[in-house]
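Protocol step 4 of 5: obtain the predicted structure for the target chain.
Materials: sequence only (see below). No template structures provided, no constraints applied. The aim of this step is simply to have a reference model before the mutagenesis design in step 5. Sequence pasted as it appears in the construct record:
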Amino acid sequence: PANSSNWCGFELLRSLKSSPTIEDGVGLSEPYDWVAGTWHVPFVTSEPGAKTYSALWVGLDGDGTTDLVQAGTEQEATNINLGFIRFTLTNYYAWTEFLPQQPTEQVISNFTINPGDEIFTEVWVGAAEGGPSPNGAFGRFFIMNVTTGGYASVSTPRAPTSVSGREAVWIMERPTVGGSLPDLANYRSSTMYNASARKANSPRYRGFVPYLGARNTQNRMTNGADTLSTVTAVDANSMRFDWKAFN
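Step 4 output (structure tokens):
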């Protein structure tokens, strides 16, 4: 596995062409223009006297690129110690983000989530309405709380950002807060399933591939020699994230 200081998960890079031509050499297949995943919002806890963070999300690009189209849920826990009284405050919400024009999460208002809720999330590039298109003018985000039936659809203008679609990603992150990395909230274990991506320019209802492909990279979250979070392949369509340490 590769290591990262702020996230763990799987990256699926563009695959090699099965029948390359002499002109293009080995060549790569079409970029990805859509990615999706489903998970249950994990219940989180914190270490004594600290605020901790975690975020589950799916996205296009991000590693080695300047663009990143992403959406998911955030799970925060704050432990408060008042002498003999100790308690934990938690905060759960859904968000979208389109880098570089949106440097921070955009919280989805009027969209309630709670621990245990089943969340389906899909992210793509396309027109304001309609299906994926790599040259579409918008980053499109759809999040559904399958448990409650609530959903949110968000469109964010793409210009002037170019989305390469070189990779699709499925991630557990400790998001940067105030310019530094906070401690990782204890989410215990969380499974993401229905994890798939779509190759651009495919016929309608075609081109979908599972996350566990030939050019797949597995990443774990570390802090120096310490492992904070790991991810393990369960099958071709699902993965399990496991919390290891706060920092």
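Step 4 remarks: The chain has a mean pLDDT of 93. The first strand starts at residue 2 and ends at 4.
Proceed to step 5.
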